[in-house]
Write a structure and sequence with these properties.
Layout (H helix, E strand, L loop, with lengths): L20 E3 L11 E7 L2 E7 L4 H19 L10 H7 L5 E3 L2 H16 L9 H7 L11 H9 L7 E2 L4 E3 L13 H15 L5 E5 L2 E5 L8 E6 L8 E7 L3 E5 L5 E4 L2 E4 L14 E8 L2 H14 L3 H8 L3 E7 L3 E4 L10 E5 L5 E3 L5
Parallel strand pairs: 16-18
Antiparallel strand pairs: 1-9, 2-3, 3-7, 4-6, 5-6, 7-8, 8-11, 9-10, 10-17, 11-14, 12-13, 14-15, 15-16
Helix pairs in contact: 1-6, 6-7, 7-8
Amino acid sequence: MTITSPVGPGPFRAVLAAALVFLLFSCSSETLRPRVDEAYLLGTVVRITVYTDEAEALLEPVFARVADIEARMSTSERDYDRTELLDVNRAPAGTATPVSADTFEVLKEALRYSELSDGAFEVTIWPLVRLWDIGSGHESVPSEGDIARAVSLVDYRKLSLNDDGSVTLPEEGMGVDVGAIAKGYAADEGARILREGGVKHAILDFGGNILVIGSKPDGTPWRVGVQRPDARRNEYIGIVYTSGRTVVTSGPYERFFVEDGVRYHHILDPATGYPSRNGLEQVTVVGDRSIDADALSTTGYVMGLPAGFTLIEELDGVEAVFVTEDHRVYVTSGLKGPDGRSRFELVDEEFRLMGPPEG
């Protein structure tokens, strides 16, 4: 089975082989054998491994569901003539644009995280994403004036999600972008379909966004490797042991370009309009829902230490691993002991496990 979809500079761009987090190995049992299929969706390879004899009947609707989510929520103007979010972004100022229940739900969650983070996560960041166009192959550093104009159009407080399921933006040039949250929503939807089909053990790998259903067939937790940020693929700094949860990492080293010797990555700071620079190398979030982990990995990265750490520590159902450029590792309390639902083990001796960050 092969499914392809358009890819390009929109919110779902990813390097084909990118795996910020990855399963260290799969497993088999005498009664359950893994069935694996993959498709190119959301700008990455979506690979699903299930332990069931009904794999094909279940996987086809999963891939179809993910393709539908992409077709509704992409803002890639190179690859889509029209999507629901492009309709929102192109509508005249003040126009209420109807969207599907799926798109409205993702926008609502994106707005919630924008409010929770005071704009570190920004649902209306599209003017900046469009301006920088990182990952398109045609990137260059915008002028200060262009960046300032784009920043002036970024403000989640101006977005209206209306009771009738429509969306309104009040100013010309504003736009929404759900690239930092929609992949998580798609993973959750894929897992829902599999669970409803009776699947007890599965791995959904959305280009490094990992969601596991249940435990391994032998009853032990899955081992999810967190990639070392400054090394080749499949070299990891630590392992997350978990069952029935999701593990998502955000970092600046997978999508970037270099100009005049300076590297510019894709995680933009809505306040400055430039790529976020705060001493962090990556943030990995472990949670019950992939939509939350997806949003919070970006939120934590932009907020930096200690604000991002404090936010995630205070939220229920999520934990995080923060890695700094000087190889220090900060782990929230729920990942430290054997009694939690997930546990992190540092395995790279070049990194040092720290206590809670100060400040």
